[in-house]
């Protein structure tokens, strides 16, 4: 009795069934996120104690069926077949029972004990749907527990049932579903054959499932089991084909649908008269053919306004902290331990200046992730796809491709991974090629820096123009790609529009954290390392007096002439752009290091004491909060007006004009996506071809656009 | 019997047949299954998401390139071309 049993529970369900909300509600912070081996689909796991048992939850990707077509389906079924869990919790959307049960039926074929979480049950009830859960439980031979993940009801019941079922699995095998006489006869014929020629397979696979897959001539199962379809006895197949036509896979799908439909007739009653619900009323306005796009544009504008207004004061705060107390403290600490001067410079001018200038943007990025998550969670994101469908046709894509592109605004890498939701491989590639034109969060630091210096009165508008520029170029490039590389029909759109829901604040925060933490990790590892590297490149050969003479300076000088016609042919700009390939926010980090003030510039200031520093940190943080709130009542978007004169701002002011600054921002927006994006594309498409293509075309495009901006501006007399 | 495309918002129909349309044949040809890059056919996907023979659908929106349907409790947006290949018979009330 002393060694407690671990119960492995796989959680499966349709997309939008509330699976991740349910898991968050159960596991909360104990959730551990990794990747499924070999693919980049997220794998969430959580282990915890429940009433003396240790439960390990494994979240399977959301899918509609167990056919071997999409990556999500393949992961789910491979996991369930190859490492059978002790039991499966099938999360079912009670408001949409019939469709969800199709997956349930297929899960039951695996013969693994199954517990159904009849989720969103409260909403189903309020819609007037009546589900006879106990009758359904009896018909299917599984436990059915009504739950509401959002309201956290039924969760203890669910876990208690999980423990019970795990204790006596044999009593809780799901019922064997009968597919009709013809199919059952065919299955028996196949079983005979397997018993004779492939008996060892019966240890490796759930028997019933194996027979069904052989009958459906499922290519991946036949291959894994080492059976050629020629070696199978033809009699069972022929008989079925004679009676029901050639398409056995289709026949089986129909049989499952029929079973589900029959079950629903028995256990589900729908209200006679349906009142148009809130979702429908909202959709009438939001999807209106004339209002749809203006509303979408307004929503985007609001997203940007909230993002910048709420985060800017906190960004300022971080900037003041890293530039002030932090530097002083390291100087003091390193001074007392007698560290050599160059190491103090490495930490202050390298690490703190480099990482610090990037950390400043953490609030902006988290705020943007938060609002994008809100759009996803509320259900509006799917409407954006609907509304943008027509516009997307112009570039040879349909509206569904719009979602990965929109996510690209948060982070291009997230966008690239989101192309997985597209069924057609051609769509995926074309969408992925256009995503780097979406201005991601990492490019913001560059804009905010330059806009603050050169366009303090129109900061929001200028940033907005850059985002629009990226989108307009995506339309143009999409059109060109469609005419050249991706000729052919525009693929077709099928998508569910989930009902509007108010996402809970806690789950919004959890998901924001999931998305945003990559940026923090990047700042702590990648950018940290690069900052150190840049510092060395700027200070080597050893004892170099002028940064221009350093390795990085020399490399910058070599390529600077390329940027001359674009208005920023300085070695400083060129060097920052070189390092920016690693991650775009590093452009700012590098500039921060290049323009770091020389030690003796600072003069003797009154050094505040530690106590004063800490007090100042607290006071200014709460000040930032007040500013953030008050700015909400202010209509125009404004990034903070720069009134302070840090060395970086001063230096940038001296090296750029407003026109060349704009050309530089356009270049940063467009040139080669960061290495992480390139690597993600390589991984998603299994070839360097598209990743290389994206890097190449975007850099060329960046040069051309920056050239046009700068030279055009000069011609118009905007050069001053 | 007529195509789903022709229903106007508020009208309901029962799906009687899902026809093959260009590029969306029902189940992919068996020989194609060996092809690594095989993807789910549009019609299979439509069926999984709830558009099947015998289902009742209500058209919520029918202008522009996309139709918005209500199938059971789910709102499903589909391309006009797919709607064209789904046959329905009218249902009153």
Keywords:
heterodimer, A: 720 residues, alpha/beta, Rossmann fold, Helix Hairpins, two-stranded antiparallel ribbon, 33 helices, elongated, B: mainly beta, SH3 type barrels, six-stranded antiparallel sheet, 2 helices
Outline:
The complex is a heterodimer of chains A (720) and B (93). Chain A has 720 residues and is an alpha/beta fold.
Describe the structure.
Chain A is an alpha/beta fold. Chain A is built from 33 helices and 10 strands. The longest helix of chain A is centred in the middle third of the chain and has 45 residues, at 292-336. Chain B is mainly β. Chain B has a single domain, classed as SH3 type barrels (Roll), CATH 2.30.30.90. Helices cover 13% and strands 37% of the residues of chain B. Chain B has 2 helices and 6 strands; from the N terminus they run ββαβββαβ. Chain B has helices spanning 42-48, 80-84, and strands at residues 2-3, 12-18, 56-62, 66-71, 74-79, 86-91. Chain B has a 6-stranded antiparallel sheet with strand order 1-6-2-3-4-5. The longest helix of chain B is centred in the middle third of the chain and has 7 residues, at 42-48. The two termini of chain B are 17 Å apart. Classes of the chains: A alpha/beta (720), B mainly beta (93). The interface between A and B is large, with 46 and 41 residues.
